[in-house]
Amino acid sequence: MNKYLDINPEVKEALDSGKPVVALESTIISHGMPYPQNVETALNVERIIRENGAVPATIAIIGGRLKAGLTPDEIEYFGKKGPEITKASRRDLAMLCAKGEDGACTVTTTMMIAHMAGIRVFATGGIGGVHRGAEITMDISADLEELAQTPVMVICAGCKSILDIGLTLEYLETHGVPVIGMGTEDMPAFYTSKSGFKVDYKVDSPEELANFFRTHIELGMKGGILVGNPIPDEYSMDPEVINPAIDQAIRECNELGIKGKATTPFLLAKVKELTGGDSLDSNIQLVYNNAKIAAQTAAYLCK
Ligand code: PSU
Ligand code: MN
Fold first, then answer.
1. Per-residue buried b or exposed e for 123-142, using 16+ beta carbons within 10 Å of the residue's own CB
2. Whose alpha carbon is nearest atom 16 of ligand 1?
3. Domains (ranges, CATH) in the chain?
4. CA 296 / ligand 2 centre spacing (Å)
5. DSSP string of 32-50, one letter each residue
6. What is the pLDDT of residues 171-227, one digit of tens each?
C-alpha cells in the first residue's frame, strides 16, 4: 500500500471482504457549497450510500496523509474551513504530502486516491472540463486528463454550462473515455437533464452499468469512464433562469480577471448567488441521486 495512504477501518474491512465502496470528493464540500449545507449534504450523501448497500469513502488530504474515508468530525472540519483549505489537484499532491498540509480533493485527486485504495466507483455532482473560451485561455480541467489515465468510474450529473460541453465531449473522445448516459442518450447539463449533445452509449440500469465497467476493467483499459446521470425532473431548473445566470457569472469572472484554479469555485458561487439559492437546492438533490446510482452500481460490481 502507498505509504502516504490511510484507509479508514470500515472502508478497509469492506474492500478486504469484497463489499461495495463508493468514493466521494471533498472539494465539493470545501469549495463547491457554503457551510453548513456542505456538511449536511456530505453526511446525507454518506447515509444514502449506506442505505443503498455500499460503504462511503469521502476522500481528502489531512496533515499530508491521503485519506480514503473520513469521520463525521473530519467532514465537519472540511466544511467549516471551506475555501481556506487548498483545492488539491494532481500537481498539488506531492507538495501537500511533503509539507504535511490539508487538501480538498477534486475529481482528479479523488480518482487518484480511490484507485490507490482499490475503490472503483466514485459519485460527485459535476466534473471539470473544457471551459468556454479555452481556445484562447487553454483552461481545461485536469479532471479530463485523470479520466484518461485512471480506471475509476465517475458518476456525475453531466457538465455545467459554465463549461463548453461540446468541447469537453470532444476532448474525452480524443482520450478514449467512454461517456455513458444513465437512462438517456443526451449528455445531462447538471442543472437540467439535457445539454443537446449525445453521450456515447445509453444504459438503463445500475446492473448494465456495472457489467459494462467490469468489461472495461477486464480488458485492461487504463482510463476511467464517465457516467452522466440526469437530475430528476422535479429538481431540474428552468433553462431561462439558469442560463442567463451562468452567462453573467462568466462575464463577471472575465471582467475580474479570475484565472486558474479559482475560476470554477468563483463561477459556482456566483451562479448560486444569482439564482438566490435555487441552484444550491438542485445541486444538492442531483448529488443524492448520483450517490444512489453509484452505490447500486458498486453493489452489482461486487457480485
Ligand atoms: N463542478 C461542479 N462542482 C464542483 C466542481 C466542479 O459543478 O464542485 C469541482 C470538482 O471538485 C472538480 C473541480 O473536480 O471543481 C474542477 O476544478 P477545475 O475546473 O479547476 O479543474
Ligand atoms: Mn482550470
1. bbbbbbbbbbebeeeebbbb
2. 128
3. 5-236+284-301 (3.40.1790.10)
4. 31
5. IS-TTHHHHHHHHHHHHHH
6. 999 999 999 999 999 999 999 999 999 999 999 999 999 999 999 999 999 999 999
Ligand 1 touching residue 26 (CB < 6 A): no
Rounded to two decimals, the pTM is 0.98
Cell of 242: 439558469
Measured in Å, residue 93 CA sits from the centre of ligand 1 at 16
Query: Which residues have a catalytic role annotated?
Result: 25, 160
Q: What is the pLDDT of residues 130-177, one digit of tens each?
A: 999 999 999 999 999 999 999 999 999 999 989 999 999 999 999 999
Kindly report the number of other CB atoms within 10 A of residue 73's CB atom: 8
| CB of 142 closer than 6 angstroms to any ligand 1 atom | yes
Nearest Cα to 109, choosing from 13, 14, 204, 28? 28
- Find out whether the beta carbon of 188 lies less than 6 Å from any atom of ligand 1: no
Judge if the beta carbon of residue 261 lies within 6 A of ligand 1. yes
